[in-house]
Here is the input.
Amino acid sequence: MRTPLAIVTGGSRGLGFETARQLGGLGYRLVIGSSDKKKLTGAAKALKDHGFDVQSRVLDMASPASIKSFATWAKSLGPIDVLVNAAGILPESGNGSSVQGASDDDVLDTITINGMGPWRLTKLIVPHIAQDGRIVNVSSGMGGLQEMGGGYFGYRASKAMLNVLTRTLALELRSRGIMVNSVCPGWVKTDMGGSNAPRSVEEGASGIVWAAHLSPGGPTNGFFRDGQPIAW
Here is the structure.
């Protein structure tokens, strides 16, 4: 029986690493990508020390060339069962996160890495995703229109774009049985979330893993937190 394969971007730290760790525990072969080669090497070693079958490759979500190289390599590994788009950045802070105060560079970088990057990678990976495969876009309630508030303009816009990718792609891939969902992990204690966040990285990743491990015929075209639907 073929061992299922899961690709996790942003897999060198935080939610990406923990998602890969939990998927490894469920028996998946793992592929992790990250732009930081040193951290990526350390993360791969840590996962191998858990006894998991893991491969790693540098993946810069801001670089179309890097994304293409990664996808070309990944498709050689066999059918892909899961793609988790977990890589992301949040460079904005203080007044620099408002509509009026945000810098062009911060907003452009955030949308490029959090929105354009997953779109570019997913386009290349989709032809190689197995029947009943799963695509999980790690989004945020901050990108949901009904929860939209002030501040963090670039981040909110990037996650809203990721949600648009989920909704449109889910409809396009429904005939292949591929489930495409957005997941909000909540406010998590990571480098991005900070030490004041109320949720552990294990709690945040569990909802991502739930969506990545759905049974055939499971929900698609949804936005979830802890396995429960939330408003777009």
